[in-house]
Amino acid sequence: MAELQHLVVGVILLASFSTGYGLRCYECKESASKYGGCAEPFKSTKIPAKDCPDSPDQACFKRVTVHSEGQHSVAMYERGCVSQNALNIPVGCVAKDQLTLGTLATCLCSTAECNSAESVTSAHFVMLGLLALSFIKQGAVLVRL
């Protein structure tokens, strides 16, 4: 009788576990000029982590892009869940020359809430260089006027 009870308890425990993948990622999008926690330095206390859809190819991502707003270049930070197959890039970071125009870097990771860390350090140097170049060009235009 005790063996049957153990078996029933074991089956109930196994049935209570989800068969899903359970990946959670921080999800946000904002301009670096309007800091609310999504840009760097990232503030996980301000940004909620969300459950990703149950799929074996889900990953967390962090993307840094630069857009022109008038005469200024503005960095945009985006974090969330994504299908690795949809992006067609491996886990890790891919720099601008391998992605679409305006994108400095896209990073993928596959552990819970892994898109919070500053894993785009090299992209920050690229971004700073592009922003500096943009300001230098603007300054050169202003000097000529």
Automatic annotation (TrEMBL):
Cleaved signal peptide residues: 1-22
GO biological process: regulation of synaptic transmission, cholinergic; sleep
Superkingdom in the source lineage: Eukaryota
InterPro entries from the UniProt entry: QVR-like, Sleep_regulator, Snake_toxin-like_sf
Keyword Signal tagged: yes
Alphabetized UniProt keyword annotations: Glycoprotein, Signal
This protein's name: Protein sleepless
Species of origin: Ramazzottius varieornatus (Water bear)
